[in-house]
């Protein structure tokens, strides 16, 4: 006697996958249109009311915490991996600028600029926010600390440093100084 596995996914599995896809699309919509994530706290209840016959709406549950997690861990991670795949195969420049947030945490926004072969355009794309200094040690805001953080993130994604062809920043001495700056450390490496 032979037993055959079911070849099509069960309705429950299909619904689960459809719910995941719907939640990802909704989170992406919130991010793309700059809608406060707080609004997602009320959205699923509204969708269940509007579409009472929808199996997807019945099961869907996306509040602000889940919206944030999806944007950061699914959409953001996927975008960063796709960008890393591109950067492994093209020459690119790094652009960075520092900013201090309301909590007095100084971060550096890192943008990469490269030629995208598919669109035949120069693209400038967000890479990451990088802490300029350790939160418990403001004196760690050194060129070496910033450089090591930048090199680590590129290394984590196996992006060769030899693909870097340019570096741009403001005139801050730690970033662009002639000696012991991020720019001078990049030139050496």
From TrEMBL:
This is DUF4371 domain-containing protein.
């Amino acid at each position: 006697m032979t037993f055959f596995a079911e070849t099509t996914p069960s309705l429950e599995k299909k619904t689960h996958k459809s719910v995941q896809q719907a939640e990802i699309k909704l989170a992406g919509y919130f991010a793309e249109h700059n809608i406060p994530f707080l609004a997602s706290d009320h959205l699923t209840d509204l969708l269940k009311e509007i579409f009472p016959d929808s199996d997807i709406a019945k099961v869907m549950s996306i509040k602000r915490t889940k919206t944030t997690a999806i944007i950061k861990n699914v959409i953001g991670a996927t975008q960063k991996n796709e960008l890393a795949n591109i950067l492994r195969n093209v020459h690119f420049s790094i652009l960075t600028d520092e900013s201090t947030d309301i909590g007095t945490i100084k971060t550096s926004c890192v943008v990469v600029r490269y030629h995208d072969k598919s669109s035949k355009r120069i693209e400038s794309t967000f890479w990451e926010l990088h802490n300029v200094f350790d939160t418990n040690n403001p004196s760690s805001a050194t060129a070496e600390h910033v450089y090591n953080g930048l090199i680590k993130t590129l290394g984590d994604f196996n992006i060769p440093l030899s693909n870097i062809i340019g570096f741009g920043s403001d005139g801050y001495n730690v970033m662009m100084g002639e000696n012991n700056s991020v720019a001078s450390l990049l030139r050496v490496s």
